[in-house]
Specification:
This protein is α/β, with parallel strands linked by helices and about 400 residues long. The protein has 16 helices and eleven strands. Helix 5 links the parallel strand 5 and strand 6. Helix 4 packs across helix 5, helix 14 packs antiparallel against helix 15 and helix 15 packs across helix 16. The protein is globular. It starts with a strand and ends with a helix.
């Protein structure tokens, strides 16, 4: 029996993880749940799984959740309600938990990740921003504490599974696949007309709003390039992005003898989540194999880097290193939020990120405080740029 602490329990990854726990109650128990403000869904999760801890964003939401629990007769002595940054870190380091699923969105995942590492937990990592911001420091601390970080992103899980077949690390190249998002065939000169509801209409995956917008801009793939650099110890120039609209090949690894290994499956996050939970074993999930005859063809194409400059930003951030990836990530978070609030047009996302990276005075060997300061600086600079564009 493995006890789970799920940070981001009301998001798509968190909900899939809890479906797994419900499917296999003899394998998984839920020790802690952390959300932000989705109280109705969190309340239902508390009712079903009775975790030791439930975490929300702030004191106001904590009081509301306690009142809602009392209204449904849920015993607060069995599930303690806590809140804020310290609450998330407490959930990440909760002593009874064996595995911490980091499925929070954005930079908010960094401090809980460090808390989980310091507590010696196995980490199932869905929060790619943790490694984008502070990959070197996070991986060094994990190695020092002998903590295993297992990827939950479908692409990185695919790479990890392929590398399992080559214990001597004979790989030479990573092929990172991308669906291409909703605007793969949309002309760039019409991007100004794109509204949030258009960008949220992903052709393949069901994800939260921020990640879905990142998929539309291909920034999600840019973040994944940086994540892969740190997870697998491979230089960015050995990572090639391929657009694969069918989303059946989740990623591929090229080995030094010319062989290429692919991990495939229908688009369903439960596979990657369960492998992080049960590695090195696998469990039955009731997921069908792809119907290859019906699919017919699997196609691949190079991404249009002029139309989608996020990939160039990511390679530039890798080349610079230091605080630059954190600045890219923070600027993007602010820009995406402004787009979702109709304060910025779709091409403006690229302009904001490009501006913040261009004017940033990079610290090349930062500590955590430098990274957090760069994150805060980039958020302020991004808001200033958004105001100028408006």
């Amino acid at each position: 029996m493995k006890r789970l602490s799920i940070l981001g329990s009301t998001g798509s990854i968190g909900q899939n993880a809890l479906e797994l726990a419900a499917m296999h109650p003899h394998l998984f128990d839920v020790a802690a749940l952390a959300a932000a403000t989705s109280l109705d869904l969190l309340l239902e999760q508390i009712r079903i799984f009775t975790p030791d801890l439930a975490v929300v964003r702030d004191e106001h939401h904590a009081k509301r959740l306690k009142s809602m629990m009392a209204g449904q007769g849920i015993d607060s002595r069995k599930t303690a309600v806590i809140f804020g940054e310290s609450g998330y870190q407490r959930a990440a380091s909760h002593e009874p938990a064996d595995i911490v699923l980091l499925a929070m969105v954005g930079a908010a995942g960094l401090k809980p990740a460090l808390a989980a590492i310091d507590a010696g937990k196995r980490i199932a990592l869905a929060n790619k921003e943790t490694l984008v911001m502070a990959g070197r420091l996070v991986m060094e601390r994990a190695a020092e504490k002998k903590v295993r970080i297992l990827p939950v992103d479908s692409e990185h899980s695919a790479i990890f599974q392929c590398l399992e077949a080559s214990p001597h690390k004979a790989f030479k190249k990573i092929f990172l696949t991308a669906s291409g998002g909703p605007f793969r065939n949309f002309p760039a000169d019409r991007f100004k007309s794109v509204q949030p509801e258009h960008a949220l209409n992903h052709p393949t995956w069901a994800m939260g709003s921020k990640i879905t917008i990142d998929s539309a801009t291909l920034m999600n793939k840019g973040l994944e390039i940086i994540e892969a650099v740190h997870l697998f110890g491979v230089p960015a120039e050995d990572i090639e992005v391929l657009v694969h609209p069918q989303s059946i090949v989740h990623s591929m690894v090229g080995f030094r003898d010319g062989a290429v290994m692919a991990q495939m499956g229908i688009p369903d996050m439960k596979g990657a989540i369960s492998y992080a939970f049960t590695w090195p074993d696998r469990i039955a999930l009731g997921i069908e194999y792809p119907d290859f005859a019906a699919i017919g063809n699997l196609s691949f194409e190079k991404p249009d880097v002029k139309k989608f400059p996020s990939l160039g930003f990511a390679y530039e951030a890798c080349a610079c290193g230091g605080t630059m990836p954190a600045v890219m990530n923070a600027a993007n978070e602010v820009a995406v939020n402004a787009f979702l609030e109709y304060r910025l047009d779709f091409p403006g996302i690229y302009r904001v990120v490009e501006h913040c990276m261009a004017v940033h005075d990079c610290i090349f060997v930062p500590d955590i405080s430098d990274i957090l300061a760069a994150d805060a600086w980039a958020r302020q600079m991004a808001e200033q740029k958004i105001n100028c564009l408006n």
